[in-house]
Amino acid sequence: MAKALRRSRIKIWCDVIFALLVRHVGSKFDDKFGMAWAVIEPLLFILMLSFLRGRMGGEESHGMPVFVFIMFGMLMLRAFTDVLSDAASALRKNKSLFAFRQVQPISSVIASAIFNVIIDIFVFSLILLFMYLMKIEFQISDMLTILLLYAQLIMMGISFGLLFGIASTFVRELDKIRSLITRPLMFISCVFFSLQDIPEELWPYFTWNPLLHCIELSRQAAYPNFGAVGVDYSYVSIITICVLFLALACYRLTWKEVLSR
Amino acid sequence: MIYLDNVSKWYSTKKGEQHIFSSITFEIPTDHNIALLGSNGAGKSTLFRMLAGSEYPNKGQIKTDATISWPVALSTGIHPKMTGRENTRFIARVNGVQDLEEYEGRVQNFAELGRKYDLPVQSYSSGMRSRLAFSCCMGIDFDLYLIDEALSVGDKKFKRKAKRALLDKSRTANILMVSHEIDEIRLFCDSAIVIDNGELTFYNDLEEAIMVYEGE
């Protein structure tokens, strides 16, 4: 007979997250495109946008090729919104799995985030390969800063997603509001334009958005002569720590309630 | 032993808080096969889900050293878009089964799904789904199995097989069972817990419990 092992807590967590991850992959890509679509779709999207933008504003944008400029904006934006929406829906979607005592609501959130990170890595590598083949000149002078920005972006996405997920188990309508809120992010986060292109007196309406800071700073990190202004690395970190704390605190207070709803 | 230590459970509904249990302290012995008796809405399923760790009490806690199965009710944790095999593997991973392949094979044999085992569960009939869920649970060794009307599904042949498997289990491990079929309860259980008005009472003698339950 299969003996159920007595495992340490950390081992149970790892096993459960791995199982959820495998399940996530299996259920998300069951059509013919399969996993490839997750990678091809953003690539096509960036291509289309940089083509349009290139038409409008020439081949260069603040010393960066337009493609690279838009790539940073799009990848960061997508990473954030995808992780956010997946984390938010993970609580409801995996509800039937919480019948297993080993599966805690937050493990499904973590699994969905890990899944998104894996996809992002694939997308990024593929785009680098694409740029290499298309002979688009690019440089990345400070990869470490970009990775740190990305990591904080993911943490923010998980935290906001978790907050929305918890809130929407109590008030279902919040799910609709979430998609309403995340849609305009594309236009207010400097995906197509730089903050430098916006008149300075309008900055206060934009710079509250940590996503904008992440995008501009990542461009700056790749091209030191980009000259990002009005953005601040420590602002990103402070926001990340605050929402992460808030999300974990809310989770800790409500997870039992989330289970019985 | 399973200790219920000052357990309270309520659900908040539109009509205010609905109390199922308030401050119950109780010991459920794990050396009996126990039937859980009570009228509809008495809190059988809630107690079940709390024992399984699918839900938690609002106050107090449940302590035990025994390994307890998940509630083998309908098709808990079975994903309709994944195949029977993938579902089996998921359950095995979550529960920490060591030998995945061997467990997979055993579930396949027991559930008698044939080729359908490698097709998505959404193409199964409801009977086949519960056969899969039941087989997955029976394939793992627990100290206590929580059986929630699980025997009421499947065709005659499978029912007989399930009964036999469960009888074997009731000798080596223990069973906690919810059923409205008194015959079934007599077959598997030797004692009972009656839930009435949020109070639990343990009866060592099953017949006595049935008398109390039916006399209500």
TrEMBL record, chain A:
| Primary localization | membrane
Cross-referenced Pfam families, in alphabetical order? Answer: ABC2_membrane
Concerning InterPro entries, the annotation shows: ABC2_TM, ABC2_TM_bact-type, ABC_2_transport
Q: How does it sit in the membrane?
A: Multi-pass membrane protein
The keyword Transmembrane helix appears for this protein: yes
Keywords, in A-Z order: Cell inner membrane, Cell membrane, Membrane, Transmembrane, Transmembrane helix, Transport
Q: Which PROSITE patterns match?
A: ABC_TM2
Specify the ABC transmembrane type-2 domain's residue ranges: 33-254
Report the subcellular localization.
Cell inner membrane
Q: Which domain of life is it from?
A: Bacteria
Query: Coiled-coil segments, which residues?
Result: none
Q: Does the keyword Membrane apply?
A: yes
**What are the transmembrane regions?**
33-52, 64-85, 106-134, 146-168, 180-198, 233-251
Q: What is stated as this protein's family in its record?
A: Belongs to the ABC-2 integral membrane protein family.
PANTHER family to which the protein is assigned, alphabetical: INNER MEMBRANE TRANSPORT PERMEASE, TRANSPORT PERMEASE PROTEIN
- State what protein this is by name: Transport permease protein
TrEMBL record, chain B:
Entry's InterPro entries?
AAA+_ATPase, ABC_transporter-like_ATP-bd, ABC_transporter-like_CS, Bact_Polysacc_Export_ATP-bd, P-loop_NTPase
Q: Which GO terms describe its molecular function?
A: ATP binding
The yes or no answer to whether the keyword ATP-binding is present is yes
Tagged with keyword Kinase: no
**PROSITE patterns per UniProt:** ABC_TRANSPORTER_1, ABC_TRANSPORTER_2
What Gene3D superfamilies is this protein classified in? P-loop containing nucleotide triphosphate hydrolases
Q: What is this protein called?
A: ATP-binding cassette domain-containing protein
SUPFAM superfamilies from the UniProt entry? P-loop containing nucleoside triphosphate hydrolases (SSF52540)
Domain ABC transporter, which positions? Answer: 2-214
Q: Which organism is it from?
A: Neiella holothuriorum
